Fold this protein.
Amino acid sequence: MDETSDVDVEGLISEEVLREAVTAVMSSARAGIENCGFASRMADLGMDSLALAELIVRLEDATGSFLELRPVVRLDTLGDLCAALHRAGTWQ
């Protein structure tokens, strides 16, 4: 599922902020975490629903948006998540 096709996610949040949030949530040293970006698949990062919920909270704090967890579990990439956050509210 590619949810980013209609949203320029690079203008919404920096990959550095995204990467810091993912790294904080997935603190166990897993290959590729430190190089994640918009195209990174959440499943490939080993992100389960609990980690996803924590990541959403961190990104909500960074953006001022609010997002329900239920629809997010169907998203594929971190870019899809950022696009969903953009559609959910106003970015700071």
